[in-house]
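question for whoever is on the cluster today: can someone run the full assembly for these? two chains, 218 residues total. i dont have access anymore since they changed the login thing
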Amino acid sequence: MVDKVRIKKYQQPKVKQWSQALEIPECLFVEDSITFYIRFLEGKHLIEINPITVNPTLVPVMEESQEQLGEDIENLDEFTGGIEL
Amino acid sequence: MEVKDFGAEYLIERIAVRSELKALIEQPPSKDIINRSLEVSIKSKNKKPCLVYGDSNINFYKVYETELQDFINCRLREIIKKLEHYKLTGDKVLVIGGGSKLPLLSAALKKKGFLISDNGAFDNLVGLVVEVA
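^ ran it for u. tokens below:
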């Protein structure tokens, strides 16, 4: 069982850069990475990441696929999306 | 009376800290902006759900839907079961608080037959004032 993850030297600058940009500790960055990768492998990823650089201002988001946008809305007041109580 | 911490603040915290939103917006999410975005609620864009992050044109609907489902599974499922029991015995259940206004959840609760307060965001406060007075 792996209880410690070593960030490879060649990955460290990017991990550091994005951890700082997102204001999260590196351990959370690694945890998120694993979570997102598993979702990706299982075809459940929510967003597609564009190749990007650190940017302090919000940029327009990429075009989303129809699948990512969820089901059609017929009536907004009654719309419950894919959630189940 | 039983009190449990299953407020909308927990959900907002999750979206801000643990979700894919930060990867989507490429910076640390702001809880205030998430809150404001949820108050604006989901809009229909070409018949597709659109939940815009603040004043940007970033749609984080899917992130919200995923986190909300997780929130329901972890925090609300148990209490909803209890409330349904009350409903079966003839009680009316009024849902109050900021969480009662959450997009998707509000409609889902209505579908289940719960009553959603028109003044949900302030009912907690009004009730507290009445208790204290």
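summary bc i know u wont read the tokens: The radius of gyration of chain B is 16 Å. The interface with chain A takes residues 17-18, 20, 22-28, 42-44, 47-50, 53-54, 56-59, 61-63, 65-66, 68-69, 72, 76-77, 80, 104-105, 107-112 of chain B (CB under 8 Å).
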